[in-house]
Every structure is written in C-alpha cells, then in structure tokens.
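Need residues for this backbone.
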C-alpha cells in the first residue's frame, strides 16, 4: 500500500537530522489521523510526544493552544517568556525518560499566532522534532513558514487508488467485493477514506450493498452517507465561510457550473478558498467548469440546504444560466430536479427531455422521479416508455414489460409509438418469448401508424423504429439482408449524429465477428472505440455499454489481444453508473479473452466475478453465457463437481440471450458437459450447435464450436476446421490455418511448427496442446531425441499453466520418463521421502523436488499417490493411438 511507504519516509525524516520535522497536508477524511497513528506506532514507546490541538475557540486566546497543553498545575499566562519557560519545563520532563521527543500540532490553521511563536522557538532551539497536521489551503498557518523556509518536509495525503480502496473495503466488509463496486465507490468518493466509509455505511443502511455468493455486490445505490459521515460532512460545511459554503451548496444543487458563473455569484477569495481546500475542482475544456471534488457528497449536501435558501440559489443562478434545448443533458436533468424539489412548475416538454436524458445517462432514480411527476399529459405514452426503461435499469423487468406494452397501447403519435417500441424491445430482451412479443408489438405499431420505410422522406420516428428493428434482428440472429440494412441506415442523413453512428456500427461489428469477417470487424470496432473515447466525451452511456462490449468481442474473436486489453481498462468507463452497471460485461469479456488465450486461472476468476455481478444485474441477458464459460473454466481446472453444479443451475435458468452470445455460451457449456462425464450429451450438443452455425453462416461462432470439438478429441471436426480457417478473414488467419492443417496431417514436425505459431499469436493453450500432440507423435515414431526435446518444451510450457486439465493431455500417450525420473518415481512408489531419496542417490533435496515437479507435469498428475498408482499399473507392450470420438448421426 502506497501510504505505508509514505509513513516509512516520514519516520525517516523524524529520526535522522535532515529536517526539523514534517508537514502533513490532507483534506478532511483523507486519512491523516490514521497516518499519524501509524507514524507514532512506528516511532515506538521510547519517543516522547507532546500533542497540541488547536481549535477555533482557542484561536481567539493568546497562547491558547500552548496554555491548554501546559495544564492547571502551571500558571497560565499571557507573558511570552513565562509561557515559553513553562512549556520548556514540560518538554524537559518528558525528555528525561525518552530517547527523543516530537511535538504534534493538529488543525494547524487554527493555531494562534502567539502559540505558533512559542513552538517555533522550541523547535529551532532544541532537538525536538515537529509534526504539523493541516488541511490544504489553510489560512494564517504560521507554522507553514518552517516548511517554506526548508525546515519541514511536506507530505500530501493523496486520495486512495483502486487497489488501496479494495483493501480498505474488504477490511471494512470482511470479505471480497466485486470489482465494479470498487471502481464505483472509488470514483464517487474520489478516494477519500471518510467518504468511502460513509458510502459503505449508507449503502448497507439502504440495502443496496449485499452479498451474492460470498461476494459483496453494489446494487443501484443512492449515494446515501452513513449517519457518522453525514454528521461529519455537516460539521465541515458549518466551518466554511458563508460565501464558500454557498458555492458548495450551489454545486450540489445545480451540478457542474461554468467558472464564470461562479465568479459572478460570489467573490474571487471564496472561489480560491474552496479550491485550495480541495473541496471543488476546475474541469478544463472549451468552457472552464467547477464541480464538487467528491461527487458522492452532493446528495447529502442537497438534503442539508433549507428550501428557502435552495429557492434563492436557483433564482440567482438562473440569472446567469438559461436552460433551453441547447443546454447539455446533465444541466437539464439537474435544473429540472432542482425546480421540482423547490416546488416550482416545469413544462411538459422539459420533463420529457429530462426523463429521456436521465435514462441515457443511466440515472434511473431521476428518470423515475421525472416520469411520475406529469401523469395525464400529452406526453404520457412517451413518459411511460421512459419509466419502463428506468424500471429495467432498477432490475424490475416485469414492471418494465407491463409499462412498455401500456405505453404502446396509448401512444397517439409515431414518435411516442417509436419510444414505446424501443421500451418493449429492451424490457423483453431476456424473456423466452421475446421474438413473439416484439413482432406483435411491431405489427401493432404498423397497424396504427403505417409501414416504416427508409427513404429521403423518413421521419425521426421511422429511423428510431428501423434502428430498434436492427437491434432485434441482431439479437435473434436473423441475418437475411441485415448487414445491408444497417449500412443503409448508416448512410442516411438522419443518423449522422455520433450516438446513432456508434450504435449502428457496433451492431455491424457484432454481425461481422459472428460471420467470420474479423479483420473488417476489428477496423470498425476501432472506429467505435475512438468515438467512445473522444476527449469531449460520449453523450450516451446507455449505448456505450454494449458498443464497448461488441468492440471488445471483435478484438477477442480476431486475437487482437492488445486492443482488447486496452479497451477493458476500468478507466475507460468514466461515467460512475456505467462503471457499476457494466461490471458484469467487462468481467465476462476479460474472462473470454483469457479462455481463448489459455490463461484459465485468470479466466476462472473473471467468469466467477461476472456471474456474481450478472446474477444481480443483467438487462442484456448474458448471464447464461457467463455461466457456460464458468462451468468450462472449472472443469478445465479439474473441478468436476463445481462444473456440474454450474451446469445444473444453467439448466434451470429461464432466460434467453442474444443469439451470438447464446451460441458461444452453449458451446462452452457443452464442452464442460462432455468433460464432466456426460460425453454423449455434450458431444451431441456441440455438433448440434455446429450445424446451426453452418446453416446460418455464423462462421466466427462455428470456429469456437469446432475448436472445442477438437479439444475434446473428436477428429471428425478437423476437416471442417480446415475449411473454416481457410475462409476466415482475420489478422490471426496464419495461426488458424497452420493449426487446422497440422491437426489434419498429424505430422509431428507440422504440429511442432504450428505450436510455435500459436504461441507467437498468443493462443498459448492451443500451443501447448499442439506441442503435446507433437510429443506423442515423436514418441510413437521412435524419435527418442526429438521426443525428449519436445517433452522438455511441453514441461516448460505447462509450468505457466498450473492446475490446467485439458482433454488433450489426458487422451494422448503419456510422455516417457527419463531414466532418472523413472528411478525416483519407483522410490516414491516404495514410500521413500524426498530426503531419503536424495541421500540414497547422493544428490540435493532440491534436485529431487525438481525431478518430481517435471514428472508431475509430464504425466499430468498432482500427487505422490497418483504417481504411486501409475507406477503400480501394468504398462501395455504396444500402446495404440487415442481413440477418436465419432460424430453422432
């Protein structure tokens, strides 16, 4: 933890002669008290300490802080020399029984001038060291002169970073916490430990933080602070100057405001004051804006502002800020909420706009508030549609479905009908009868508002309906004219806006990846990511979630690992709600990448995290895919019962997925089924999936299915794998072609060369499987030298994959042990310990352990008991090749 290193540096400064002491600066709740405690613990009991606590009350009394420390036994005085001598006597008394002494000054900004003079005198004329603890931007801090003159070393208590936040939260909660929750809490608190504690306490009070399968999950929190943190925040506000507090309250009510507006409303001194105290931050851009430094405190601060003052602030701010159709979405949302909270009227058009924007920015609580405020208006159908989406984002799918259908029933215009149809599509996407429900809803729309066509006269409602249709067709895998239809939409003038462009391109990326046009998909995915990461930000977090997912999937299908890794960085998801809601998707994508590369240990961790999160929040219905992947990861680690348990849960899961995600997850689940003992069922399911992919042209998905068929030992899949590899459009095509060709030829040299190619392209599991096949062929062919060389290569490669259990390792002939390995194995089988074997063979214990380690990997065993059983088993004279599983009719 970085703060531990800072503590060590501070202790070094206090125990050597390089300075007079240290200045520790940090905002309220940053952890200064914890750090001071760690420093004093590290200094130990032989270091005497005298603590002076300054305060606003003592600041008004000359020598107040020092006199308060001197105590009643000594005469308190306002004479400089009397106070100095009394303080020196106390220092001398403390020093007689200690090796050295430190003076500690808390809240240094409230230290009176006279006490500061006494302390300066003592520090500069004695061996005592000084620890000054202060807030950023402290006023009239006389002791800071020591730092400015180079006598004190300054240490700033920085906000906690992601890993430190994880450690703190797991310590507080006593268990693991989901990665999305960590990222969200770190962002909302700005790494401030006090606010972090408050958010955790508040989330537990409201029930949004709870355990799912022994992992803490955060579910739609309201940024409520726990009682203790709320009271401390209130105390902090009361300590601010009136102008400074006013700015903080206005920013909590209005959200970010232009810096020029803030300067028009208050003094430059007040702005400088709160900025130096790190209570606010200025955001650069075309227009400089100011916002709260710790976003999570906004809700609590709003609750503290009396209604009268809130109305006055709104009136004052409105003189400089006009909300209209050109205002940014966040400002429309914040001012609409502010007006409603003040009991002021808001027109219907503004309410609808604010509701739409709230859903687009993934702020469902405000969307619900707005959509319920104007019932019975001409915009009722559109508001119901938006309320449906808000409920879906609140995990209330059943309510969302009812509202979307009702919205469609009462829609009186194509625009409202298009909104309702989109809500139907979103809310029913995980329903087993999704396609039937959507088709009925679409027919209802056409029956009332006419056919929807794309031409020069198309309305915005037409475009919205056609985009919704494209989403639906991608979801069900209906490929007929689908790419052409999406391209036509992209070419239409009405979709030139960045949101439509990114959405449509991401749909096309998914189609191209699934059909094996991977290079084209990657090129388009890079365009999508560039739009999503542009400096001015992307306006639609609700679109960004799946756009990122589709782009990352394209990188993974193509084997573009660098692109995938970069796109999965948590820093990309800067919107806090997007960060929280997208966690399951991000973990699933990371797990999928690790599975394809062969890092099954990391993949298992990612799939477990994805399943935990998606069980709690999965509006995209990808949980079945995550569970299929988890079952596969478990069985590849030899955990058959765990894999069987997940497969049983999956069988009971009454939820559909998008077609391409469904096929992918089902393929991994079928492979897991095969490896857990249900070989006939698993194999039949894999071939059924392969036939479906072949029938519909899902070449990219078929590649996954065929690779799993080859992995479980079905040689009948190899010929089709060769055909698919030749037809692929991919930057990794060389790997796919060499892999499939080597498996078809079963030539040892070709298998070895293909293994090197697989390693070069980052498919490390395939690389070690190919090397294992090559080893087997060399052994069967009697090429002892090459066999031993291949065996060493396999051992070295397997060392990087601890605990991995692949059917390839189990179905081929076991590689032969060297003479020394065989000798040691026989002694193990006779019950000899490693030490006794080392003594008998006159070698070191480490040598014996190394031989056994390589033997375990070579023979794919994990224990001495397994080795003993193996040595006792009869060895066939002429072992034949592995029996290939035949393709079911």
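Answer:
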């Amino acid at each position: 933890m970085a703060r531990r290193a800072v503590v060590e540096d501070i202790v070094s400064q206090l125990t050597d002669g390089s300075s007079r002491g240290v200045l520790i600066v940090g905002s309220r709740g940053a952890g200064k008290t914890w750090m001071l405690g760690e420093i004093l613990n590290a200094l130990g009991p032989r270091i005497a300490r005298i603590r002076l606590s300054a305060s606003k009350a003592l600041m008004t009394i000359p020598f107040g802080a020092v006199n308060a420390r001197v105590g009643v036994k000594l005469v308190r005085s306002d004479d400089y020399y009397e106070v100095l001598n009394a303080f020196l006597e106390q220092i001398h008394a403390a020093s007689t029984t200690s090796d050295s002494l430190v003076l500690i000054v808390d809240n240094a900004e409230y230290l009176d001038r006279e006490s500061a003079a006494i302390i300066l005198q003592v520090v500069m004329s004695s061996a005592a060291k000084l620890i000054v603890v202060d807030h950023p931007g402290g006023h009239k801090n006389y002791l800071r002169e020591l730092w400015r003159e180079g006598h004190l070393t300054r240490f700033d208590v920085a906000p906690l970073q992601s890993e430190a936040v994880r450690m703190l939260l797991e310590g507080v909660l006593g268990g693991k916490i989901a990665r999305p929750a960590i990222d969200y809490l770190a962002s909302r608190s700005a790494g401030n430990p006090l606010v972090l504690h408050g958010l955790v306490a508040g989330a537990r009070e409201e029930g949004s933080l709870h355990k799912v399968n022994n992992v803490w999950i955060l579910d739609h929190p309201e940024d409520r602070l726990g009682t203790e943190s709320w009271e401390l925040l209130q105390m902090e506000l009361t300590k601010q100057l009136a102008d400074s507090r006013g700015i903080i309250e206005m920013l909590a009510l209005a959200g970010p405001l232009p810096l020029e507006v803030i300067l028009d409303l208050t003094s430059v001194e007040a702005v400088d004051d709160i900025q130096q105290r790190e209570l606010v931050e200025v955001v650069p851009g075309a227009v400089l804006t100011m916002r709260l430094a710790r976003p999570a405190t906004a809700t609590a601060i709003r609750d503290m502002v009396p209604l009268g003052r809130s109305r006055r602030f709104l009136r004052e701010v409105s003189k400089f800020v006009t909300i209209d159709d050109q205002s940014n979405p966040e400002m429309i949302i914040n001012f609409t909420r502010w007006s409603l909270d003040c009991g002021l009227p808001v027109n219907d058009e503004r309410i609808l706009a604010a509701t739409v924007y709230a859903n687009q920015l993934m702020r469902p609580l405000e969307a619900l508030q707005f959509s319920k405020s104007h019932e019975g208006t001409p915009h009722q159908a559109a508001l119901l549609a938006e309320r449906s989406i808000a409920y879906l984002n609140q995990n209330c799918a059943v309510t969302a479905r009812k509202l979307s259908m009702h919205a469609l029933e009462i829609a009186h215009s194509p625009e409202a009908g298009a909104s309702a149809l989109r809500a139907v599509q979103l809310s029913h996407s995980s329903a087993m009868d999704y396609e039937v429900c959507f088709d009925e809803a679409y027919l209802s729309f056409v029956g009332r508002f006419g056919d929807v066509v794309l031409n020069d006269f198309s309305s915005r409602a037409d475009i919205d309906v056609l985009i919704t249709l494209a989403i639906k067709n991608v979801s069900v895998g209906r490929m007929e004219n689908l790419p052409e239809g999406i391209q036509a939409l992209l070419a239409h003038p009405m979709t030139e806006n960045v949101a439509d462009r990114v959405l449509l391109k991401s749909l096309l990326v998914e189609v191209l990846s699934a059909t094996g046009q991977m290079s084209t998909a990657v090129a388009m995915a890079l365009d999508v990511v560039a739009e999503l990461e542009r400096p001015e930000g992307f306006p639609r977090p609700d679109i960004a979630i799946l756009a990122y997912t589709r782009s990352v999937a394209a990188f993974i299908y193509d084997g573009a690992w660098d692109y995938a890794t970069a796109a999965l960085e948590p820093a990309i998801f800067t919107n806090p709600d997007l960060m929280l809601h997208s966690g399951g998707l991000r973990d699933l994508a990371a797990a999928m990448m690790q599975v394809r590369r062969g890092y099954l240990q990391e993949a298992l961790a990612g799939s477990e995290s994805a399943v935990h999160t998606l069980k709690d929040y999965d509006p995209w219905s990808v949980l079945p895919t995550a569970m299929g992947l988890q079952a596969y990861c478990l069985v590849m680690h030899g955990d058959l019962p765990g894999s069987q348990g997940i497969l049983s849960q999956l069988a009971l899961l009454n939820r559909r997925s998008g077609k391409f995600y469904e096929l992918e997850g089902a393929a991994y689940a079928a492979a897991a089924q095969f490896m857990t003992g249900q070989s006939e069922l698993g194999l039949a399911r894999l071939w059924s999936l392969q036939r479906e992919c072949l029938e519909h042209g899902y070449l990219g998905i078929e590649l996954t299915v065929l690779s799993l068929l080859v992995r479980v030992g079905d040689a009948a899949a190899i010929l089709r794998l060769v055909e698919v590899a030749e037809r692929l459009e991919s930057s990794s095509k060389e790997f796919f072609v060499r892999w499939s060709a080597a498996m078809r030829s079963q030539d040892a040299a070709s298998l070895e060369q293909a293994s090197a190619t697989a390693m070069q392209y980052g498919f490390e599991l395939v690389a070690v499987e190919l090397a294992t096949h090559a080893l087997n062929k060399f052994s069967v062919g009697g090429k002892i030298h090459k066999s031993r060389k291949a065996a060493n290569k396999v051992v070295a490669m397997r060392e990087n994959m601890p605990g991995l259990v692949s059917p390839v390792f189990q179905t081929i002939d076991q590689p032969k042990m060297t003479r020394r390995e065989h000798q040691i194995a026989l002694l193990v089988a006779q019950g000899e310990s490693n030490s006794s074997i080392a003594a008998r063979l006159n070698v070191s214990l480490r040598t014996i352990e190394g031989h056994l380690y390589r033997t375990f990997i070579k023979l794919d065993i994990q224990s001495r008991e397994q080795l003993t059983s193996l040595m006792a088993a009869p060895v066939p004279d002429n072992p034949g090749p592995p029996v290939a599983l035949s393709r079911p009719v």
